[in-house]
Amino acid sequence: DVKVTQSSRYLVKRTGEKVFLECVQDMDHENMFWYRQDPGLGLRLIYFSYDVKMKEKGDIPEGYSVSREKKERFSLILESASTNQTSMYLCASSSYRGATGELFFGEGSRLTVL
Amino acid sequence: ILNVEQSPQSLHVQEGDSTNFTCSFPSSNFYALHWYRWETAKSPEALFVMTLNGDEKKKGRISATLNTKEGYSYLYIKGSQPEDSATYLCASPNAGGTSYGKLTFGQGTILTVHP
Asked: What is the Cα–Cα distance from A28 to A7, expressed in whole angstroms?
């Protein structure tokens, strides 16, 4: 059973804290993605990675950074959490199949920043 | 940024009703159109990936059609059941991201099926 696992389902952090969201996939996929989901806005891409140590900004990268030191693991970092980063964060992975590669998602991490 | 739009935003139907909703996307430089279902407390799961104009795909009571010339796709659910309640998302690859499968998602349609 293929799997994308996100480290925490629910987190509560304070403004200014550094936050790490971890994602691990067991499908040997090249591509990994971080999205956030907010009501009425759909899923918005924060960052993606197409290989180890390679990363590219998505549509809303401000306030975030990422790390991909191993193929199976993709971390999202909030250097200094702010209340407008309260959201549902979804990690996904896909194989290198261009436009037709379906995404496999984790169950999401709901972050609240107080 | 590629614009992918879904309508309606939400839909309430009775068990047994058939329903449909729409995804629209720019028709120029079309590569593919993805549909995902996201049930509460679960991961989004792919339903269909469609690439050809006129394509129709089916999975059980759910089917989808694609019109790449006019830039829309319909998702149909026949005889809705309470377990069909979910958010349905469509997505299309960005023109610059096709090599990496980078998708732009619509806002989603939230379907609630009442027993």
From this structure: 18
| Lookup result for tokens 């096709």 | B98
- Rounded distance, CA A26 to CA A81, Å? 29
Q: What is the pLDDT of residues A34-92, one digit of tens each?
A: 999 998 888 999 999 988 989 999 989 999 999 999 999 999 999 999 999 999 999 99
Most distant CA pair in chain A: distance in Å?
Answer: 40
Q: Give the mutation candidate from A100, A104, A107, A110 for the B interface (greatest B CB count, under 10 A).
A: A100
Pairing of strands B5-7, B19-24: antiparallel
Check CB contact of A3 with chain B, cutoff 8 Å.
no
Say if CB A43 and CB B89 are below 8 A apart.
Answer: yes
Please name the member of B41, B89, B107 whose beta carbon is closest to the beta carbon of A40.
B107
A to B CB pairs, distance under 8 Å? 74
